[in-house]
Write a structure and sequence with these properties.
461 residues, globular, Growth Hormone, Chain: A, 3 domains, 0% strand
Amino acid sequence: MTARRAALPLLLTAVFVTTLDFFVANLAIPSIRTDLRAGDAAVQFVIAGYGLAYAAGLIVSGRLGDLFGHRRVFAAGLALFTLASAGCGLAGDAAQLVAARVVQGVAAALLAPQVLALLGRLYQGAARARAFSRYGTAVGLAGVSGQVIGGLLVAADPLGLGWRACFLANVPIGVAALAATGRLLPRDTTARLPRGRSRAGELDVAGAVMVAAGLVAVVLPLAEGREQGWPLWTWLSLAAAPPLLAAFVRRQRLLAGSGRVPLLDLAVFGAKGFAPGLVAVGLLFGTSAGLSFVLALYLQDGLGLDPLAAGAVCTALNAGFFAGSLRPSRLGAPVLVLGLGLLHWAVGAGPVQIGAALLVTGAGMGLLMSPLLSSVLAAVRPERSGAAAGVLGTVQEAGGVLGGTVTGAVFFGALDGGWEAAARAALVALIVGALGVLAHAASRTPVRALTAFHVKPDMKR
């Protein structure tokens, strides 16, 4: 196996583990609450802290890779993620766990843009399209596997670790991946700077603060607002986000106009199909996160299943996703809509019927995920892959938080009518999101409305 071929499993392992870690803690929450005597706010931040740090750091991390080298930043992120995972697993109280989760999110943000930039460097033409396709499969499989893997680890209780195994399992994986990084990834070839100028000085720190603050102002209230009853601070935070992000955009334009390199190359949004594709990606990840939320509550609290049994039902979603991802197709979006419709019907019918519907839903996600992500990334020139990766990752995270928030609001709003009514109402919201992805697919190919996404592997730019 050539070094180039061997690099792909390394990069996909990194993106799989960091994506999985956003979801895997969900089923461990009850155990964490009991073991660490954690309050509601602390438990919420075990999940939200990771997502916040991840979303806020992605755009900055893309620029760091350009300045200091993608392999170097990848290795730093991988080392930090491994140490933070150990910190999570060894946490003695809730505050330590939350702090370690935030560091985990920062490390994941360092990794993600470098993975896509390295894929762009290592592969060209048809090989590049296949690599991006496998990237999409890894991201999607990690997203739908969270509940299953989390449930299995908590139920298996290896070495008596309980919920800690969800985090400590990352340590040997991280150590092995870090050992292979120097051998399998290409050396960095960063541009030489003029005498007297440092790489740190080339980083737009003010812009980094603006974009991080703007993203936190959006994501934090969406993650915490529903649980806290939407207090005043959540609305003030949301109101502060647009001016912060607008100031960031203005600053990037001024820097580009003055000849300096901006933190984010705004020209990436001019690529045909990139911006509409981002909307579809946000809707898809919002649908996936919302579905995870509904399943976690309905299967355990509504049907009374334990974490292992709930995870077993969710294996149908994984099986469908894996089968669909083997042969990505243009029919992914309509199959996803069909699967969610069947799931709406299966609520109240029992775990077997729910599992069958999840099989179809997972197949739709598997068919759709890699073509959608590939089409978004293929729209951008290779030299802008770092910027595109940061924006794409930010949209994935923000879409997931928004999808979970909207789905949760609908679910709890209908809970007075019982668990079945709440689950059905939430699934209607998810079907609407999936229809948005289908509409994007139809707009891409108006003659064949069911056609989703097609990537020409050696597209000329």
